[in-house]
Amino acid sequence: MKILVLCYEYPPVGGGGGRVAASVASGLAERGHEVKVVSAGLRHLPRRAVVDGVEVLRPESFRKREDTCSVPEMALFLLTAFLPALRLCRTWQPDVIHAHFVVPTGALALALHWLTGIPYILTAHLGDVPGGVPEQTDKLFRWLGPFIRPIWRNAAAVSAVSRFVAELAKKNCGVSAKVILNGVSMLEPPEKLEIQNPPSLVMLGRLSIQKNPLLAIQALTLIKDLSWQLEVIGEGPLGDSMRECVEKNGLSDRVKFSGWLAANHVSARLAASDILLMTSTSEGLPMAGIEALRHGLAIVGSRIGGLMDVVEDGRNGLLCELTPEDFAKGLREVLEKPGQLLAMRSASLVKVRDFNLPERLDDYEQVLKTAAR
Q1: pTM, entire model
Q2: Which is it for strands 178-179 and 200-204: parallel, antiparallel or unpaired?
Q3: CATH architecture of 2-183+356-372
Q4: What is residue 34's predicted lDDT score, i.e. its pLDDT?
């Protein structure tokens, strides 16, 4: 099967959604399918490359940063990617198009479908669904609503990365989406789990409004009397504000900023940590959370829909209200009870089986084959 993947963010560009697209694309390529990707290009990235058996094309998108994309930059991606993608459809003739993100990428898939008749499937992640990130996208969806409805309606199939995203698609768009959880390859579990001394917390991802990193520092300030250390892996628009907050609250000797790290280094840092701290205001299905499960970390996260598939409250972590006080209470509970922390970490190693990548690839393969027929 020939599969054309459209995704405006593809590693190293973007965040968790792009990593999901890459894991699915490379997994399908490993199974013998021909997979080509059209994604956003930046000047320092090659226009064409083969990565893990997948041919990646990156036409210049005029995007300025790897980790952040504005609405005008999304529109520019559609304009610059249209002709290269259309050329691929007419010369290579894929059997099916897989579009990650209904907005903006779904618009490109719809245009290609209208011009070539090639069927497409959509994978919705969160911010591309009305109500997913309301503080950032509500006004945009109100304006674009009439233009977005044909994208949903003409798709041969729709998948969603979590139950929460599927519920939003049903409630706000009238679309029934098949839930296909994000997947990861399983690791050999450690022979013995041990808590670091001092206990090691980690935050992983884009330092943006959605990830709400300042709340994390405010919560940690309330438990300065306990022993802990925090590593922040990632960067973003709130990075400088977060550093200022750390210094202002006297936490400079306990909080380390590592910036973006290569995947193998991220894996090594997670393997040496105890707790993933997630203070997000919204999530679809966070890859950071699944990676934490894979390494046996307890998760102290926000009580939001997108974390319900990752955290069983009280079993492999705790879900907290979006206040510094409630996060401080949750962190205090796990830090003061090492036995409970170890039990939660063990439970995460069991929970990660829900996200076994080969099983998730089976799901995508079935949907794509059905759409292609």
Answers
A1: 0.88
A2: unpaired
A3: 3-Layer(aba) Sandwich (3.40)
A4: 98
